[in-house]
Amino acid sequence: MATSLKCLLRSGKEAAAAPAVGDANRDLAAIQVTVRDALNQALDEELERDERVFLLGEEVAQYDGAYKMGFTGIAVGAAMAGLRPICEFMTFNFSMQAIDQVINSAAKTYYMSAGQQPVPIVFRGPNGASAGVAAQHSQCFAAWYAHCPGLKVVSPWNAEDARGLLKTAIRDDNPVVFLENELMYGVPFEMSEESLSKDFTIPIGKAKIERQGAHITLVSHSRMVGHCLDAAAVLAKEGIDCEVINLRTIRPLDVECIEGSVMKTNHLVTVEGGWPQFGVGAEICARVMEGSAFNYLDAPVTRVTGVDIPMPYAKILEDNSVPQIKDIIFSVKKTLGV
Amino acid sequence: MKTMLAIISNALCRITGKNAGAQTVSEGARVVVSRSLSDFTPQATFDIKKCDLHSLEAGPPEKAELTREQGLQYYHTMQMVRRMELKADQLYKQKIIRGFCHLYDGQEACAAGIEAAINPSDHLITAYRAHGYTYTRGVSVKEILAELTGRKGGVAKGKGGSMHMYAPHFYGGNGIVGAQVPLGAGIALACQYQGNNQICVTLYGDGAANQGQLFETFNMAALWKLPCVFICENNKYGMGTSVERASASTDYYKRGDFIPGLRVDGMDVLCVREATKFAADHCRAGKGPIIMELQTYRYHGHSMSDPGVSYRTREEIQEVRSKSDPISMLKERMLGANMASVEEFKEIDIEIRKEVEESAQFATSDPEPPLEELCNHIFSNSPPLEVRGTNPWSKLKSVS
User: Which segments carry the region annotation Disordered (chain B) (predicted)?
Assistant: First the structure.
């Protein structure tokens, strides 16, 4: 019984086969991997690497149905007793029911026990707006979880991020909230050979400069990073050179990277899918104000965010509820005063 | 300590050849023996109450064997918990303990009986009325009281407080009502996964028994046949609400529906022990989870903020004390079967009082944790990090 349960929990979702590295076509183009495949590959490798790692959640293995607070608590308990669970939420919206277990049972326990009881667990799942799933299934939880000490919160954008950060998250001895994005799952990205190696990890807490630029800094996470790069491409034609930072981690925030960039460009725009109040952009503003980069700002920081409303259903309304590329372009120009 | 008493008094009697009627006081050993040990019954069998059963063909035995040594040990454990809790009451009223303090006096037979039936390598998790279990799971009274007073010598270095004490294979101490139940099933999952034949005892109260997350947990535990003993400590009141006012069904041992259950006299340490043994065997045999309802009683209110007499009468409390006190019951049984002497029990009491007094001394004199400790233990096995203080210039250090 124990063995079959073990197999069940460790089989994970059906994983598409990884593109063959030794393929003859390798010379022609770098390997394209979708975010979904990158995640699945990373999961498979980590499951194999450490037998204490296992998957638990909604719609994993054979079990249908969602028993949210129950299985989240079970995952946390298993982590306390020496296993390394990956607890999957169908979407992070369901985690709101289980949030007590994430915060009070996982995040705070190492502190409350004065270092006696670690909780090595990963909570993963799609976060934020999807397509046509309406208000209760579209919320971004980055700010909610990033508020809490004791948690690490990561938000990958591309396939490389997904792979490297998930491996790091699984190997971390602490609770990590891993915010994925449903609309990104099917998007393919080029992956270097290095990034496909079994021990490829990306450190938590370090942002990446995806595009160097001189005039203005765009800071973003998850899907919006792609929007920023698209906006940057358009702006480049008008002679505006954007530096695009992919946060990769929300908590702890890589303030140093942001500050370094602002000291170079003197202008900052934050871009996120979540609501504006008390959000990721708000935190970045506060931190920049408190630090050395403040004196380098030639204009106040601009936050580009989701509209401050529950997500509507109708397509035209939904499209206008989240930042579009034109909103980023508009905000960049306003910030630069052009 | 408990068996040392027997060993020392044994040795003394043989050496001195003293017997009935003579007093032997050994310097420094704190032993008083008034009769020869050959007078005492080494082992006896007692009738215990039959358990009500749910979905079970047979239940625990209706007789329990008790050796003299076990009896003295259980007595010692229960009395230690009793006196520790009363000391905590005192310290709270002196405002040396603050915040939450949920006392366990009256319920000692539950903690002592459960521990007597499981192995130290088994696991246990409970809610916030946790001091008794913290002790039975191996933490000293000194470290418990010092945690209550928030000192650096506390079991959680003063950072946890009453509801957040931990030890190996003891997962607290949990403040959110009912949250510990899924955690317990998770621990049981880890046991099953690791194939180590260990079980997890997961406790909750009558107040938590109606929570949704319990039923989610029961479902998964049954589905996966997790080696989890769910134990409902029914002390008749969820805070100020009696069970009749709170639950459509007060047969808590039946609430697991498809999970078998038994209802146990929680005031009798032998009954608790036999039932827990039965339940543990059930789990270890791979039959899946089982529920035990322990019918017990708390003398104190829900917490130190609750006098405990607005929703129940003083007469009721007094009646339980005089008729069903777990410590008195065990003592009378042993005396009745000539398993120990009144003086022996007195000696144990004195020894316990001394230990509790010394622990309280420590707990009131030990310094509070140093401010340097403030931000430590955020993350496990991580490099030191900087933590923002109350203002932007306050950059504090956190190590694992």
Answer: 380-400
SS3 B178: coil
Which residues are registered as beta bridge partners of A244? A211, A218
Here the CATH number for the domain that contains residue B318 is: 3.40.50.970
Chosen domain end from A196, A222, A243? A196
- Answer positive or negative: Cα dihedral of A126, A182, A310, A141: positive
CB atoms within 10 A of CB B140: 15
Q: What is the ipTM, given to two decimal places?
A: 0.86
B254/B394 same-domain check: no
DSSP β-bridge partners for residue B47: B63
Give A57-107 pLDDT, tens digit per residue.
Answer: 876 654 444 456 789 999 999 999 999 999 999 899 988 989 999 999 999
**Cα(A194)–Cα(A185) distance, rounded to whole angstroms?**
21
The answer to whether residues B154 and B273 belong to one domain is yes
Same-domain pairing of B352 and B392: no
Q: Which residues of B, range 210-239, sit inside 8 Å of A by Cβ?
A: 212-213, 215-217, 219-220, 224-225
Q: For residue A103, what is the domain's CATH number?
A: 3.40.50.970
Q: How many domains does chain B have?
A: 2
Candidates A160, A239, A230, A247; CA nearest to A202 is A160
Nearest-angstrom CA–CA distance, B138 and B297: 24
Range of the domain at A191: 32-196
CATH of residue A302's domain is 3.40.50.920
* C-alpha count within 13 angstroms, C-beta hemisphere, residue B254: 8
The 10s digit of each residue's pLDDT in B175-184 is 999 999 999 9
Q: Which residues of B touch A78 (CB under 8 A)?
A: 186-187, 189-190, 193
Q: Examine residue A119 and state whether it is found in any structural domain, yes or no.
A: yes
Answer whether B177's CB lies under 8 Å from B126's CB: no
Which residue segment(s) compose the domain that B382 sits in? 371-399
CA distance B239 to chain A (A): 21
Q: How many domains does one find in chain A?
A: 2
What Rg, from alpha-carbon coordinates, does chain A have? 20
Q: Measured between CB atoms, does B392 come within 8 Å of chain A?
A: yes
Q: What is the pLDDT of residues B278-294, one digit of tens each?
A: 999 999 999 999 999 99
Do residues A144 and A274 both lie within one domain? Answer: no
Q: What is the dihedral of CA A36, A8, A173, B178, to 10 degrees?
A: 110
Predicted TM-score (pTM) above 0.95: no
DSSP A18: P
User: What is the spatial distance between Cα A133 and Cα B67, in angstroms, rounded to a whole number?
Assistant: 66
Among A79, A252, A290, select the one facing B385 at the smallest CB separation: A252
Among A140, A167, A196, identify where a domain stops: A196
- Cα–Cα distance, B143 to B98 (Å, whole number): 16
Compute the residue count for chain B: 400
Residues of chain A found within 8 Å of residue B189, distances taken between Cβ atoms: 74, 77-78, 81, 83
- The reply to whether B233 and B379 lie within a common domain is no
Task: Estimate the crossing angle of helix B326-336 against helix B108-117, to 10 degrees.
Answer: 60
Residues of A with CB below 8 A from B381's CB? 118, 173-174
